[in-house]
Design goal:
The protein is an alpha/beta fold and 218 residues long. The protein has eleven helices and eight strands. InterPro entries: Aldolase_TIM, TAL/FSA, Transaldolase_3B, Transaldolase_3B/F6P_aldolase, Transaldolase_AS, TSA/FSA_arc/bac.
Length: 218
């Protein structure tokens, strides 16, 4: 499974990339706004940190403007994936951009039927939001299971399932068990994956025993 980081915080991305935990990055207008910086500058800096896909989202809602924004965003770097919403205009934009060789991430997916339409439009990635479905008492992971199963029925579909709105490690583990190809996680959730009380306890014991020897490795 590929790990994408869901943030526009360059310091967090750089730190996780140095640990080998970044295969790509996803951003959205809310994350860019939170950064307090100009979008093009942030995306360019992120693209320089990781060679993997970096999603940059359009903000237009009509096809012509959406397409113009997508073409502008892809000029920032060769690894930009233009992010479009799962609307008719978004899918039309996806189809055009994909035909031009641009990576496209279709976002805000909440049903298997929507995911099938995105694949038909040639999406590079489909981003189903599991956490937001859980918020309305719907099983987000069942959506992942359904999309993965449908895509596997048709070998010609190359769209990758990019699990989004991951709130905790269980979402990630379940998505991996289902065979989703990509997960995008906030930095805090990635760091949660590291934590286990037995790891902490074992390390404390090892270090305590080592200190008793009075030795130093260096």
């Amino acid at each position: 499974m590929k790990f994408f980081v869901d943030t526009a915080d360059v310091a967090d991305i750089r730190s996780l990339a140095e640990a080998g935990l970044v295969d790509g990055v996803t951003t959205n207008p809310s994350l860019i706004a939170k950064s307090g910086r100009k979008m093009a500058e942030v995306i360019a800096e992120i693209c320089a940190i990781t060679p993997g896909p970096v999603s940059a989202e359009v903000t237009a809602t009509e096809y012509e403007q959406m397409l113009a924004e997508g073409r502008h965003l892809r000029q920032i770097a060769t690894n930009v994936a233009v992010k479009v919403p799962l609307t008719e205009a978004g899918l039309r934009t996806c189809r055009t951009l994909t035909g031009e060789g641009t990576l496209v991430n279709v976002t805000l997916c909440f049903s298997a039927a929507q995911a099938l339409l995105a694949a038909k439009a040639g999406a590079t990635f489909i981003s189903p939001f599991v956490g937001r479905l859980d918020d309305i008492a719907t099983d987000g992971m069942q959506l992942i299971a359904d999309i993965v199963k449908i895509y596997r029925n048709y070998p010609h579909i190359k769209t990758e399932v990019l699990v989004a709105s991951i709130r905790h490690p269980i979402h990630l583990v379940e998505a991996a068990k289902l065979g989703a190809g990509v997960a995008t996680l906030p930095p805090a959730v990635i760091r949660q994956l590291l934590k286990h009380p037995l790891t902490d306890r074992g390390l404390d014991a090892f270090l305590a025993d080592w200190r008793k020897t009075g030795q130093s490795i260096l």
